[in-house]
Amino acid sequence: MPKSQIQDAVRAEGATEADRPGSACPLGTHPLFQTPGALLPGYADHQNPAADGFLAAEYMHAHTFKLPVWHREEDIRLADAYTAALAKVTSHAKDLL
């Protein structure tokens, strides 16, 4: 099931802040790893890893959702509602295809 379809279904269940990472990127593609000399001049001549050399990071980025960070006692009900929305969508994934 495409991640965008899962996101739409979760949002339809009221988990409106569920999101796909957009500001983050797989570690191997981060500019710090591709051009470290820009920030760390001592590494200007450093051999950079291939951008596609971090397959696990790419997999995680492709299969990850962002959720809000809940940290207060009164957030428990909201966290439970998000858990219920995710559980409902995943348990009915075949029906949504």
UniProtKB/TrEMBL annotation:
Domain of life: Bacteria
InterPro entries named in the record: PyrdxlP-dep_Trfase_small (IPR015422)
Region (Disordered): 1-27
Protein name (record): Uncharacterized protein
Species this protein is from: Streptomyces luteireticuli
Upper classification of the organism: Bacteria, Bacillati, Actinomycetota, Actinomycetes, Kitasatosporales
